[in-house]
Design goal:
The protein has 139 residues and is an alpha+beta fold. The chain is built from three helices and five strands. The chain has helices at 17-28, 30-46, 123-138, and strands at residues 51-55, 65-69, 73-79, 83-88, 111-116. Helix 1 packs antiparallel against helix 2 (30-46) and helix 2 (30-46) crosses helix 3.
């Protein structure tokens, strides 16, 4: 997978996905921005080769959704008024001994982690989950 998705487009002058995620974090401010920034930091620490993307931009969500990929989508980082939702596309196939997944538990493929204001995330367990998602995507 090409890493050029993280570079600004010289032809269009558009911001790179990483810059758009920076802007989204700044725009959110408060606890949701801080949470998204922390999650991003953990993802990059777990997988230095991760590719940041923005997907699903539309008039009702012009900022789009931050997406972290490595040989396919690892997870998305959606923000709502009351939570930050991290959805793992192949989460049902991942081992989660620490019980991080707390949402979308009934599906055949996806699993999610809903983080509410004041919640703490187990960084070590989360990085392990990211590494396992990378391994699954590569297989």
């Amino acid at each position: 997978m090409k890493k050029t998705k993280n570079l600004p487009s010289e032809r269009t002058g558009e911001e790179s996905p990483s810059q758009l995620i920076d802007a989204r974090i700044t725009e959110l401010g408060e606890w949701r921005g801080e949470t998204l920034a922390r999650i991003r930091e953990l993802i990059k620490a777990a997988d230095p080769e991760v590719v940041e993307e923005i997907k699903w931009r539309k008039p009702s969500n012009p900022s789009g959704v931050p997406v972290w990929s490595h040989d396919g989508i690892l997870c998305t980082g959606e923000t709502y008024k009351d939570k930050v939702k991290l959805t793992f596309m192949k989460g049902a196939s991942l081992s989660d001994p620490s019980g991080l997944f707390n949402s979308s538990l009934g599906g055949n493929a996806r699993r999610a982690i809903d983080i509410f204001e004041g919640d703490k995330i187990n960084g070590k367990a989360f990085k392990t989950l990211i590494r396992e998602a990378v391994k699954l995507n590569k297989s």
